[in-house]
Design a protein that fits this description.
There is one protein chain. The protein has one domain. About 35% of the residues lie in helices and about 20% in strands. The chain has 2 helices and 7 strands; from the N terminus they run E-E-H-E-H-E-E-E-E. It is of the alpha+beta class and about 140 residues long. The structure holds zinc ion (ZN). The site of zinc ion has 7 residues, from loops.
């Protein structure tokens, strides 16, 4: 039979030892708290590193797709019209970019390096070429 305790027993989140007292106490001491937080930070950093290559791959893929439209042949200020599904069909991921330029309350051009895209409606996208120094 379990002994009856007046205080709630719970375990240190770091070392697993029993803790008695206030139920909001999570660690036996500062050493356990610091060790726990250090591991948590390391795990977060590790996850960020793992996620990063995927983001790079997506942006590179977007860039390769945009390059197919030969946007550098456009005149300065000229835009190319494409259907959203046409880009999606090629594996384009909207929202991924290396920079963004908000031009008015509705429109934000997103860039993969010097190649920009603007979602101008549910199925309409504009593309353009713009050198960094002009933005
Ligand atoms: Zn502990």
């Amino acid at each position: 039979m379990n002994p009856v305790t007046t205080e709630e027993e719970h375990l240190c989140e770091e070392c697993g030892k029993s803790l008695f007292g206030r139920s909001d106490k999570r660690f036996c001491n500062d050493g356990c708290r610091n060790a726990f937080n250090r591991k948590k930070r390391d795990a977060q950093r590790e996850k960020e590193t793992q996620d990063m290559p995927a983001v790079f791959r997506i942006i590179k893929n977007n860039y390769e797709i945009l390059k197919r439209y030969e946007l550098y042949t456009l005149e300065q200020g000229e835009k190319k019209f494409v259907r959203r599904y046409e880009l999606e069909k090629q594996g384009f991921h909207f929202g991924y970019c290396t920079s963004a330029n908000k031009v008015n309350s509705q429109d934000t051009w997103l860039y993969c390096f010097e190649l920009g895209y603007l979602e101008s409606g549910p199925s309409t996208v504009y593309l353009k070429y713009e050198e960094y120094k002009r933005r």
